[in-house]
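agent> call fold_tool(seq_1)
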Amino acid sequence: MPLFLQKQPFRFLLWMLAFAWLLSSTSCGTKKYLKPGETFLDKNTIIFENSESVKNKRNLRYELSTIYKQKPNEKFLFTPMRLGRWYYYRTNAPSDTSWFKRFLRNNVAELPSIYDNSLSESTAKTMEYYLHNKGYFDAKVSYKPTYKKHKTYVTYFVSTNPRYTIDTIDYTSSDPRIERILRETKDESQLQQGKAVSEGLFNKEMSRIISKLQNMGYAYFDKNFISPIGFYDTVEHKVNILYEILPPKDTSSHRLYTIGDISVTPRYDPTYRGSIRDSMIEGIHFRLEEGQSIVRPQTIIGAIQIRQGDLYSIQQLQSTNNQLGNLEIYKFISIKYLPDSIQADKLNVEIQLTPRKKSVAGFDAEINNSSYSITETPISLLGTSFNMNYKNRNLFRSAVILNTRLSTSVEWNLTNSDQLIYSSNLSPGIEVFIPKFKDLNLMWGLTNRLNLLRPEFYNQLRDKSKTRLSFDYSYVNITDFYNYNSFNGFVGYDLKLDNGKRFRINTIGANYLRPDFQARFDTIRNDNEFLARSFTNQLFTGFLFRDLNFNYAGKPKFGRSYIFNLNLEVSGAEILGINQLANAISGNSTAFKLGDTNFEQYVRLQLDLRHYWDLSRRLTLAHRFNIGIATPFGPYSQEVPYVKQFAAGGANSIRAWEIRELGPGAFFDSLTVNNSNRNNTIFYQAGDFQIEFNQEWRFPIFSVIEGAFFVDVGNVWTLREDDRGPDAVFGKDFFKQLAIGSGLGIRFDFNYFLFRFDFGVKVRKPFIDPEVPGDSHWLFKEYKNYQFRDINPNLAIGYSF
């Protein structure tokens, strides 16, 4: 029997009785508000009557469940209690005017779901219509309500019958040019033989036809000219599809259009009544107000992707809109094409641009507290930080964006008045965004000519990306321990695509790190040889490629969504090539150095995959798999720098352990494990290889409060043996060295931000303590002696993943 029950059985019994009373009072106490003949909707269920013929039945059931016209009230946690409904009745009386009851009514109460048979009938009809659009042309849906006391349970019986598939597809038109275009591009259609028929595929094909023709000069071609005809084989359940392209009213062929005059109003204001002068610049009319134009005309011309005489193309107009959007100086962009009054086959283009504020500044401050120690005496700290930023959206009147920022923070020592400042940090930075692609090191043009890049990606990079130049400096000082100076400079590109993909690429970059140590930190370095070797002057470089961050957010489908992130970093490859070439010529074997600074040479790759599954409106099962590897390369680098290695533990990792407390591998550190003040210890463990798996069940409690149950698994390892021994190296038995933590979390979701408190408990440790006879990886036996200090609390903003 658990220790709690042995010591306090009477109190436990009282809690159970109180909970049982609450359960019964909230679940049954609302039925008295029902009128005669009324019931509460308690559950909706979908049953497939011919389930053997339904593929992906789980996904189809989820899709149909989104059609319910009436849903039951939310349950409280894992109980049958409907707290929202109960609070609605408890706070809905005319006399309930206190602020607390108004808060409950507006934030917690939920309108009772009183069963309505007409809504069930409507749901069944909508389900049938939905299935027909999915290719189940013979589908039938019926429903049956079951009444039990004051509750109603509705079952929907779905008979899909066989789904129709595509057999053939063809096009016909009285305009031979259009018929030829569509037949020549038939392979681009998603309506391929054997695919299941669905309204979504038909809509995609219609959009493809419209886009294809609008990009080839048919400006006014739209869906009204497309007439799809289906010939059904009810025996084989196949469909032959014919798209008939209808002619305009007065002629048998559609008109091709070219671009006529192009005019630009760079400071559009419909209320302006002053004089306007017209200027012709590089074949484009500029309508300029009195005074100086906000942006130089040449900058706007560079963003316009169409020219007079070009064949009309909706893609080029969209590209122009994207390029003008990259000029962040404009908040509204309007591109209109108007028929020419003289030449019927020409379209004049009118571009109206509405500027936004040129400059914006911001400021914020933060206060936090923490406590830890590197000695035997805990230190209590009060942290203060200030952040300032300034943005200029139109530097040199060329729509170049200038971002400047300054961050400073101080940790005040509340324990020792003789040393008032424990740490300080100063970090200024500057970023310059050029609203065009600039191949400054000629790498992209060369790789494109060598066919090392997909032409589509190079074109998107050239048309949609911004060139970014960033420089920042950071000074950190930990009083009596160490300080360091860090200098960073990068040249790169930011590219955001419409399909949810984002790229942040740095082709040229350098990071210089210069630490300086005091005597108190030497005691830590002396106990950790790898740490001592890593904290030296270091230079991280890349002159053809420095790093890449790729992010993809998939569109939600069937209640599931995915996020994938890749980060690749390379340092010193160009320096190594020059170094080896110089050594081959001179016959030396020395490594390049810049004074006492090493050129670091390594490659680092990290992959992060996240999956979210909405089990109900507010119940979500979230997963994350994270793997990373870093390794040095070349004859002059023997290990990855400490600052570039992986660490496990903390609020966004294995939450039962503190950050950098885990690993590497099964390495056992008696100084931290058996330290009575270990909760106030700073940890330094890191590794070259990382595996993490996190699972979190997120559920509503009430109002803005959410709960979570989580399980975290993972560790870090080295790839080669160092002073920490063979137990730290990744090997075939790595799964035996995985740490497991679990726990509960509570979150306060205020939409625009989320506070998160997670309380982690160690379930399995990766090592065996040789000083404890019969020690085990599993920690279940220790739970009876657990104290509050054995729980690792985590406070953070935002979800862990």
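agent> call fold_tool(seq_2)
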Amino acid sequence: MSASTTGTANESNCPEEQQLRRFAARALAAAEADAVDGHLAECADCQERVAQFTLTLQNATAESQTDGQDRASPRESASVAATEAQGEPGEVDDFELGFLSPSTDSRSLGKIGGYDVQSVVGRGGMGIVLKAFDPSLQRLVAIKVLTPALASNQKARRRFLREARAAAAVNHPNVITIHGVDEQSGMPYLVMEFIGGCTLRERIRAKPRLEMIEILRIAAQIATGLAAAHQQGVVHRDIKPSNIMLEDGIERVKIADFGLARAAMDLSDITSLGQTVGTPSYISPEQVTGGNADERSDLFSLGCVIYAMVTGHSPFRGTVALDVIRKVADYHPKPLAEVDERVPQTLSDLVEKLLEKDPKDRCRSAREVGELLMQRVAEINLAPSDRLPQLTAARPRRRRAMTAGVTASALLACLAVAVWGAKRWQDSALDTAEAPPAETPAAPSTWRQGLITVAQADEADFDSIAEALAAAGPGATIRILDRARYRGPLALEDSRRYQGVTLESTQGAELVAPGSSRPVLSVKATQGVTVRGLRLSASARQFGIYVSGRCDGLLVENCEFSHPSDTKSANLVLDQAAGSAERPLRLKNLKVGGNYLGLAIIGKPGAPVSFVRIEACEFISSEPGTLLTLENAVRNVSIAHNIFSGGVGGIHISLPEAGGGDELAIENNTFFRQTNWIALLETNSDQGRLQVRNNLVLECRTLLIQGEQYEPAVIRWFENNWWELASAADAGQVKLVCAPREPQETLAVLSRDSNSADFLRPADDSPLASGAVGAEVSYVGAVVPAPSPELNTSDFR
């Protein structure tokens, strides 16, 4: 009788007490921990025992931290725990460190090469992992050393060095960087970057129900990192949650522990036939049967990881390893769409395809999978609805994976019709949303073309903006005289009627559209429109202003945009919008708040966002988010004299096609407190006149560069920027993008407090005061009156 049936702790299938204690202490190897985890899902008694052991450990830890000894800070402890992903945590008492040489640092366990070893972090399948300090570059590193028991084995030494060199050849932001490979006292070792954060396994345990956007972002980055490894002929062979690092602060994924990775051409001479290498719950059927494991084996493991992020566990669970292996070979897990209703059908289908038993039936490449997932991320980022839209028609679910005839290319086609472009936004955000109350259009002979006034309390022509628009004709000026709140959504989409119309507020009136998924204000293919002085407050899944089509001479100025804290949308969207050389589209003196996405500029090949000027605006975020993103295709776009403050990313650029960024200039802006002030995401290095110059960069860490090897392009694109070295900035990147200037340790400004009138203002005697670098802060930010008193919905007119 099973424990799952009786719920008692005495059944033979229940783990031993010592095993449960080690599970609570996170001291079990991954395969054993997964087996216990599966048992706990069905045994309430064992759950209670593990909870008691966990509480005991927490109490003991709290007591030990009051004994007055010098202990690691919480952040350092997290970093040490995070590095355990590079070697499974385990017992370290038996580790022999005799190969270390003496160190002059009394706090060090010894030296290896030029590194001071601070502690033993854990062990992997073939080596021990040390936390060490690099005095020459003043940074922490992780060092993996072949275990003493294997060091004397020539075959193991050759395998270790081969794997280290293979991993070192993979240079990608989503793969842990290998700094070097060396040997000391007969002990080969490799030096890796030290990652602060946690493992995906720890994240899943702490938060079993991850948000769908988190799942997709993490999965997409894993696939992108694997694609880079596969391009170098390297197969990981052990992709699992404990080998996936989530870097502290930005949650950039780093694939760790290529201890089982190897060059694809050397498969035959490293592992003997029939030897299973990897973690049973996450390895492919060909690995458990002793067959050849190529790139498609990593894709099967990726499918298992995605499944675990949704459900909290691998799709293949059992009480013993043999049971798990049998399930990997024969069992077809329940489709994710049937397990969790949040899962879009296309993602469920993709995971089913990744979990095909025959490698030939899986997706063709990690790159293809990464593109699918990134497009899904893009769709959700800008989806205005309150739920994740399904991309395929409802159909009967099935337990078996998709047939070989349904390729990943077909999935890509399904996804492509639903992401980033105007058609998707129009269908989901405009056409399928509730229509505004029908207005009886005025005849052209009755259109008003002069001044039209609006006020709710004072005497005016109309008491609602919608009524004023219904009366307006070409060239009319609709002026709002009070500070009241007005209701949208409003649409200026009649190119004949609304050409040259001005909508302005003299007192900072607020415009909202509660209960609607339509943008608060949309402008489509209408020229000469001016929007001035409004406060636009969007809901969580709603755009503030949405602009599409040919809009020569559009001017949006002195406006303020805001979103609630749980927003999943953009404040402003330029979707294949275009001005002209004589009459560009201008965004000027705006204050763009929110915590998710400030401004999205999205073009496509053949329909780029073009002739746009973004000037003297302040983009600000108090929580992780991206302030401005440029996607797919832009032409003649200038971003100048703006402040980008807070958030994870300042400006994100994704231009996958050659020439997608023709005449893109990012000049004289100030970037303040971003993790990545510029991110180049899969951007083709062949761009026409892309320039990033004369920008002031304060308290920012890095450029985020994914995809190609960018250094030559960065040298061409970046010039004369001022980037201070303080706040853990990447010194190599600083030097590269500041040329010909020398990097500055700190850059003096009068105040770094956003509430100060001198926020980011250079001192009069500062070289920055010349205006040659950074934003012109004297006029940045919208001049908008204080919010009007709160009004009830019944107050709308």
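agent> summarizing second result for user.
The mean pLDDT is 75. Residues 296 and 359 are 6 Å apart (CA to CA).
agent> awaiting next instruction.
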